[in-house]
Amino acid sequence: MPTIKEILEAKITEKERITALREKTVCVPSWTGVKGLEREYDASKHPVMNKQKYPDIPRDYGVEFVTRISLGFQKLAAKRMTELVCGTPVKRVYKPENDRQKIIVSVLEKIFDRNRINSVNTERFKHLFACCEIFTLWYAVQKDNNLYGVNSKLKIRCRTFSPMLGDELYPYFDEYGDMTAMSIAYKRKVGKKTVNFFDTYTDGEDSRHIKWSDESGDWAVVEDEKTTLLKIPGVYAWRKEPIWEDSSETVYEMEWAISRNGNYIRENSKPKFIVKADKILNYGDEKGSNGEFKSVLQIPEKGSAGYETWQQAIESLKFHVETLRSLYFTMLQLPDWSYEKMSQQALSGESRKQMFIDAELKVGDESGALIEFCDREVNVVKAYAKLIMGSAYHTDIDALPVENVITPYRIQDKKEQVETLMTANGNKPLMSQRESIELYGQSDDVDKTLHDIAKEDMNDTFELTD
Description:
The protein is 41% helix and 20% strand. By secondary structure, it is an alpha+beta fold. Helix 4 runs antiparallel to helix 6. The chain is flat. The chain has a five-stranded antiparallel sheet with strand order 6-7-8-9-10, covered by helices on one side. It has a three-stranded antiparallel sheet with strand order 5-4-11, covered by helices on one side.
């Protein structure tokens, strides 16, 4: 397999160069196409919605539309897993060893805060769990500012690419498994024309950013610049399968069962007037309700007439669908948080916590790759911090230990937590009066509130003395 340097320096056409860069060494499921993950993720593309597999019925009076009920459980699985991972924001734990590193910590956190990293994590992890790969590019914009607590000529931004957004990602790994280049194929409007672009970012001492475009009809280089980070300015993550794994057939079976039952209900739930008689009777030719004050139906002496309703055996269908639904969440180790399920039983706070045990184990299984992704991202942001803070801080930036911690979301009982902590510290207060007022958030002027409380306490003391 050629190295990235050999591909970029080879005497070949730009189209052949791009074809070589598109060689993917990791096996990521396709998002689009006949067998793409999008057909599982998007409920409107499930088999029950396919009119070729499940056609409407032509009648003499027109087309009878069949019942189609789709269930977006795959999308729900990706969303729920993201909530478990990001419901409690990913935390970066720093261990500064001197005052210079404390300043660095402040700068790094302000870079993450300015880019709203918690919201970014929620969006990109949802994409990762659904389409199986993401790439977050960090880049700098020339602009004087003091956003990070130090004077800087750069503003740091980030942007996430994924197949769900119409992007194609092509990581290039060497024989040791290290990513030496990252390429992104995407389309953009240039005037009234849609143009294809292909960007490549390389690693190492000769790190470069190269952009190709086919605006002229053939692929041509439109940008070729060296980068100062000496590394790829972004982080890539991929998965072998979506978070819903091999459970789509279970969802399809639920959709078929509910949809077909809907057809039976429509056909049989309308009221039917039944006449039981030994001979044929003429009826139904009375005038309308506004033309007669009463209607008469004559039947034999031993006959009978009346409305009959359809007695459907609904319990078997309900059992079938409920069993499949339960198996779906059980196999994926995801909690079923629907209001219907949560309200069926009067569970105590501790019992509700137990519902999250399986989900916490699931997050533990997934967190290894996510933490590795976040650790690499911290290193990229550290590289940008060097550009912002200057060479005097380089050694301390490299030496600063940073650990990313993913805490699975769980139901928190604040009262129980406070009581446990107070028991551990000998029933001493855990916060000051000022902190409790600020945390309560109802006071517009904390100092005035403290002063009023102190004044009231003083008045109460004088009254007791009298």
